[in-house]
Amino acid sequence: MTAVSQSPRAGYGAAFRVREFRAVFAAHLLSVLGLVVAEISLTVLVFRLTGSPLMSALTFALGFLPHVLGGTLLAGVADRVPARRVLVVCDLLCAACATAMVLPGTPVAALLVLRCAMAFVAPLFQGTRNASLADVLGRGQAYVLGRSLLRMVAQSAQLAGFGIGGVLLTVLAPRAALGVTAGTFLASAALLRFGTRSRPARADGDRRSPLAGARAVLGDRRMRALTLMFWVPAVFTIAPEALMAPYAAGIGSGTVALGLLMCALPVGTIAGELWAGSALGAAARSRIVRPLAAASLLPLLAYAVRPGVVPLLAALLLAGLAHAYTLGLDQWYVDAVPEELRGRAMTLLSTGLMTLQGVGMALAGLAAEFFAVHTVVTGAALLGTACVLLLLRELRATEERDGADQHMTGR
User: Fold this and answer.
1) Gap between the Cα atoms of 202 and 398, Å rounded
2) What SS3 class is residue 81?
3) What DSSP character marks residue 298?
4) For residue 5, is pLDDT > 70?
């Protein structure tokens, strides 16, 4: 395992000082940008080929179901196959799919199938990469900071990627822009192949069913509570983003205000993670988990008074800043998961997060058919806070149980 600094306040430099992580970071940046460009380009291409807004929207939404299936069926591969091999093969498969999309004769049905194939392997790639970070950086502060950096890259790349994609489509045809995506995945594969070490599989010879890993993770009381602490808040946090367009229209705001409001929550999230990673040590990041998690949805109660753009921007930024607790939660999670289950646990974590965000968007939209948008978001904040408090209580109970077990065994 790579030795890294474990000083009380190491900062993000602790991760960047590891050569392998620099390759992982660059590969992640390329693949995320490439995927965002692909989503925009493919959506535009399908619309031009079919003239159907429904088909265009379907193309954008197709990532959800294959993501669930891939995360469920392929999770075991993350532990049974060496991580570098899994990551490189997934990148090459995505590059091949993007290349096939570039071919002029590729019909719409094939484009949709290729989009599904890319989404199918995405949770395996994400879970394997997140699990392998502990091999690259160790399981201490550097791991937490490295995982935070990858999250911030994903947030930032999505904000910037849509702009980059839009600019590309002003100078390139959609199929040519998809060629850029193929190039980013090939570059990512090369960085991972030649910039990281080959390590043996964590659970070589384990041939249990794909669902066995999920049962092992969710069957343990503490791992289940920690997993739900990542999943459940996401269901409720997504509500204001899902309903931002109708809310902005309802208060008479224009497209510029809508764009600012859409950016507020992710910008706050990035700022919160930067603060926790740069200014706090491991012990402090652990201490802020409970208070910030409990308060993370409370700023959304501002919707109850139907605020204008400026106070709503402040509320969304505060809600994003509260996500600084995620760094401490990351440390608790990696400490709780056995090494031989790490790949499956991380794949399950990313699959559930992606799926439940989609569920949260759908539920928010459904509720807004019957209630005013500000009522829906206020209700989501109240219900979400109640759920988080219950989960925090459950986490406390698992800590007391573990402490009692250690006392009984004399450890």
Assistant:
1) 26
2) coil
3) G
4) no
Question: DSSP letter string over 377-401?
Answer: HHHHHHHHHHHHHHHHHHHHHHHHH
The residue assigned the tokens 């839009």 is 166
User: Alpha helix (H) ranges present in 140-220?
Assistant: 141-171, 174-195, 210-218
Position 269 scores a pLDDT of 93
Structure tokens at 270: 């990035």
Within 13 Å, how many C-alpha atoms sit on residue 263's CB side?
A: 13
CA 225 from chain centre, in angstroms, equals 18
- Whether residue 11 contacts residue 145, with contact meaning beta carbons closer than 8 Å, is answered with yes
- How far is Cα 192 from Cα 171, in angstroms, rounded to an integer? 30
Nearest to 307 by CA among 299, 344, 161: 299
What is the value of pTM for the model shown?
Answer: 0.83
Cβ contact 144:64 at 8 Å: no
Q: Which two tokens stand for residue 14?
A: 């602790």
Length of the chain as a residue count: 411
Which residue has tokens 């219900």? 383
Using DSSP's 3-state secondary structure scheme, residue 189 falls into helix
Residue 2 has pLDDT above 60, yes or no: no
Q: 52: which DSSP letter?
A: -
DSSP 300: G
**CB-based contact 98:38 (threshold 8 Å):** yes
pLDDT of residue 163: 66
CB atoms within 10 A of CB 149: 22
Q: Are 62 and 39 in contact (CB under 8 A)?
A: no
Pick the most confident of 53-67, 68-82, 161-175, 224-238: 224-238
Q: Cβ contacts of residue 191 below 8 Å, gap of 6+?
A: 23, 24, 26, 27, 30
List the one residue out of 327, 319, 244, 318 whose CA is nearest residue 288: 327
Q: pLDDT class for 40, splitting at 50, 70, 90?
A: confident
How does pLDDT run across 41-51, given as a tens digit for each residue? Answer: 888 888 888 88
